Amino acid sequence: MGLLSKKDAQLITDPLTDDNPVTIQVLGICSALAITAELKASIVMAIAVLFVLGIGNVVISLMRNIIPSKIRIIVQLIVVATLVIIVDLVLKAFAYELSKTLSVFVGLIITNCIIMGRFEAFALANGPWKAFLDGIGNSLGYGVILIIVGFFRELLGSGTLLGFKVLGDPIAKTGVYAFGYENNGFMLLAPMALIVLGIIIWIQRSRNEALIEH
Amino acid sequence: MGLKQNLHNLKEKYKGTKVAPAFNALHTFLYTPNDTTHAGTHIKSVDDLKRTMNTVIMALIPLVIFGMFNAGYQHHLAFGNIQAVTGGFFSPEFWTLDNFMVGFWKILPLIIISYGVGLGVEFIFAIIKGHEVEEGYLVTGMLVPLIVPIDIPLWMLSVAVIFGVVIGKEVFGGTGMNILNPALTIRAFLFFAYPTWMSGDKVWVNGAVERTNEILAGAEVDAISGETLLGTLAQGKEVVHSVWDMFYGFIPGSVGETSTLLILLGGLFLIFSKIGSWRIMLSATLGALAMGLIFNGIADAGWIGEGSKFYSLMSTNFWHHLLIGGFAFGVVYMATDPVTASQTNKGKWIYGFLIGFLSIMIRVFNPAYPEGVMLAILLMNVFAPTIDHYVVQGNVKKRLKRIKVKTA
């Protein structure tokens, strides 16, 4: 990365791996459970959070010296709420079906712990460029996990990816269904999202023992 | 130089290598070790973990054999090849070789898959972790074929067994550390993942699914239906089986759960060999009877109309609940699992009672999940440590009070 200094690059790469907001800090689990039954919804959610956190971090960082610390949470909430409403309206205007699927969870980005967490922990103490990189990095880290979980849940639960029947048609019994394969309905239920997430955490920690808490 | 010595030599040969636990397990499963430890305390007991597990398996064997006969009997009955038996438990028309062979060839693969896949996972984990192979799967492997429908596809069973052993047990640290009963975790996984293969009126009788497919393909044959009694009751239909059929087990259902008589004998065997807890079995039965009586009371008092979808299950004679579905099997063989049940005596009463109580409640109020006992046991497995905690704390408080009274 020629454009970024090594330290700046780490702001983006760390949250993708060893400081992942979902698997290491265990934040933003609620939405990871709720909307990952379909890959498409996961991707849109990831983009929405990328937008909100990227811009939100910059805005908070710019205002960091003028926000009275007593009311900073309220100010942060207003910033998130504004951005989330923009996302919500854009989705309703251009992707109505999808906004139906995501339903309340777009609005609930406001309460996503990752966003408030980054505002508090990073944007209030760093300049806008760094805050921007941090926002991008963390939302990418969140998005990667969402997409992995969404990929497995949609593939094994519905036999599709982004709505395409990659495993064949379950009703006409083509593809793998001809051999007696059946979709795993459990994958579409929220507990399985937690278990898939747990398996990702398991794999990650067994590859890097420094991450294991004792 | 018998088998024992050969196994011992194999064990010695692979000592210190990665696969050592596998050979060690093979040897000690069949025989006592050739050598004893040379230091430390020795406790000589016939009652080690493997013996405990084998005792439970012995208590399950009659159910396996009965399950084989019953699978064939239900198959032939549904296909109209034979008449329903009327001559009691020892009716020769039931105990025919033909019935047995039909069931044998369906159930043997279930057992082989269950043990093969499950022990495979256990061996792999033992080798990765570098510790001994744990005995826990010996019983689970026998329970699993008994609590699934006869026609379950084998690959589904394999997936479920891998899931159950890894997520239900190994992630917590193996046998003795698991929160949930592994066999029930496997069944719950199947139930939620492949509901069409775990409920309805086709999977309980061997051949019914194939027959349905033939009809879909255009064959001119009669459809076969073989609901469990719970399914029949949930739909408010008349039950054709007599109470004695329910007690003997001549009814459709999961492979090993139907015969209340044999489960009762197995339960007595477990109680007298001091493997299973009589407190849990008794309190669960009382809990189920209590809930059944409450429901009967509600139905008799007329608080709920005959048109209600709950009416038929609610008005079912309260003690019939003990005979139908998997209640008896769950209570005797699953609820008493020493790892996941409550450990304290008082805790066992509470734990058992709530299992019985909740089983019947789930059974009646959620016809989509007729097998309430599975969910009730899993739920109480989660609560067992909490129950124990409060029982122990209560005891601590009581004894502290006693000291205070003495010193004052």
Rg of chain A (CA only): 19 Å
Beta-strand proportion of chain A = under 5%
Q: Classify the oligomer.
A: heterodimer
Q: Proportion of β residues of chain B? A: under 5%
Structure description:
The complex is a heterodimer of chains A (214) and B (408). Chain A is mostly helical. Helix content of chain A is 62%, strand content 0%. Chain A has nine helices and no strands. The longest helix of chain A has 31 residues, at 128-158. Chain B has two domains: 50-274, no CATH class; 276-408, no CATH class. In chain B, helix 3 (49-78) runs antiparallel to helix 12 and helix 4 (97-129) runs parallel beside helix 6. Classes of the chains: A mainly alpha (214), B mainly alpha (408).
Task: From the structure above, extract its key features.
heterodimer, A: 214 residues, mainly alpha, 9 helices, globular, B: 0% strand
Give the SSE layout.
The complex is a heterodimer of chains A (214) and B (408).
Chain A: H1 6-16, H2 29-34, H3 39-62, H4 72-94, H5 96-102, H6 104-107, H7 113-121, H8 128-158, H9 190-207
Chain B: H1 3-13, H2 20-30, H3 49-78, H4 97-129, H5 137-146, H6 154-168, H7 182-193, H8 195-198, H9 208-216, H10 229-234, H11 243-248, H12 260-272, H13 278-300, H14 311-314, H15 327-334, H16 345-365, H17 372-407
Helix pairs in contact in B: 1-2, 3-4, 3-5, 3-12, 4-5, 4-6, 5-7, 6-7, 7-17, 12-15, 13-16, 15-17, 16-17
